[in-house]
Each structure stands twice: as C-alpha cells, then as structure tokens.
DNA sequence: ATGACCCCAAGCTGGGGA
C-alpha cells in the first residue's frame, strides 16, 4: 500500500479554494499540508470537509496559518511547535496511519531586523529539539512545509536573491544542516541528488518564465520512512495556472 | 534610487512576504 502526501504554501486559502479543490480531485492525496492559509479557523473553506477530508486548522487573522487535510482518521498531537515561544500560527502536527505529520511554516526572517531574524533561528532550534525527541523515541514522522531556506547554492537561481537574504544566510543554512544531520532525510535530494528542483517563483519580474526560482519547501523523513520513499516531485504545472500561489505543491509518495 | 507582484485589513496606504 502506498501513501501520497503533499506540502503546499497556498498564499491565502480563500483566494485559492477552487485551485486546491481541483488539485485534490486530480491527485487524490492521502494528506495535504497547507501553509499561509491567511485566515482564522472559522473562515477556512468548508468544501474540503465536504469532500471527505478531515481537517486540522491552526489559523490567525491575516497572516500565517497552517492546515492538514487527511483522507484517513487523524489525531492532532500539537497546535504549536513545542519550545517555540511565539504565538504565530506556524505549526500543526497530527498522527495519521501511524505516521506523525509536522506541518510547518518557518519564519521568513527578512522583516523585523536582527530581532526578526533571531525568531527564525529560534524556530529552527525548537524544531531540531522536537525532531531529536521523536528520533530518540523511534517514531515514524515527517517534518514538511515552507522552511524558508535554500540549503545550498543549487537551491536558488543565481539572480533570485540578494546574498544577504535570510533564506541563504550562513546561520540559516547551518540551522538546516543541524536539523537534517540529526538523522533525517531530505526527500527531494534522495531522488534527485543535484540540480534544480524549485518550489517557489516570485510573482515579480516574470520569475517563473525565467525559471528564477527557489527550493524552500521541503519534506524531511525519519529513518524508517526514508526507506519507503518512492517519488518526490514539485508540481510545477500549478505555477502556470491563473492566479496561482507563488509556491507549488511538493508531492511525496511512500511505498 | 525606485518599483516591480500579491494578499490582507483598512479604507485608497502600508506591512509582510521571499
């Protein structure tokens, strides 16, 4: 039996309800993790529940917000990232089919000066601690979402970012490596060790047409799940749709 | 040096995004 799940920063679920509905019809994933839903729970479209998906929504007004849609029974385990002391709606976690799905929207870090950037590193520290706790307990888990980090120079087009951008700052990349090297597997880099696998293209400057993109949406797998990995694919077609999100779904299939 | 694009809450402008 295979399991298909995806991560998608949707940049307002209310603006893109129809796009997501259409995508779900065509792909029929077991689980879809959304970020930047940009609404409160009571504003989240009802259509997904009507289609038979269970929903776990952690929202707030205007900004951030994450949600998990699941075809299977779901047990919500966290509505905030343990150890992260900020109120923003950036993490929701649920156990589905014996697997823990941690759906995260990591702070961008470019706003609010160094104080704002430190919040990004704080989130990374808390996430790494949480991952190590689950590794020690030998849980099967996936940490997926918008990490707002390009792990290496191959993960952004040469002209896509300033060298001082928080997505490529050395401290951001070091924090990423500390997390991954705790014992997790970057799914995309198993099926495609090198080269471009962008998941984001800016709205400005014809970035998609020029393929001036970033790889910032990631799925990290615990050891046993890494053994089951079949395919990983950013769904680039979605970026060519009318009024798309600036991110595309990252689709993962496990055996 | 500035704006570019898009979303949101407000309210016709500004913050945040990446």
TrEMBL record:
Comp. bias regions, Basic and acidic residues: 231-241
PANTHER family registered for this protein in UniProt: EXODEOXYRIBONUCLEASE III (PTHR43250:SF2)
Catalytic residues as annotated in Swiss-Prot or TrEMBL: 105, 146 (proton donor/acceptor), 247 (proton acceptor)
Species name: Kozakia baliensis
Site (Important for catalytic activity): 217
Stated family: Belongs to the DNA repair enzymes AP/ExoA family.
Keyword Hydrolase recorded: yes
GO MF annotation list: DNA binding; double-stranded DNA 3'-5' DNA exonuclease activity; endonuclease activity; metal ion binding
Region annotation (Disordered) ranges: 231-255
Cofactor remark: Probably binds two magnesium or manganese ions per subunit.
Keywords: Hydrolase, Magnesium, Manganese, Metal-binding
Cofactors demanded by this protein: Mg(2+); Mn(2+)
Matching Gene3D superfamilies: Endonuclease/exonuclease/phosphatase
Residues where Mg(2+) binds: 9, 36, 146, 148, 246-247
Site feature (Transition state stabilizer) residues: 148
Lineage, broadest ranks: Bacteria, Pseudomonadati, Pseudomonadota, Alphaproteobacteria, Acetobacterales
Name of this protein: Exodeoxyribonuclease III
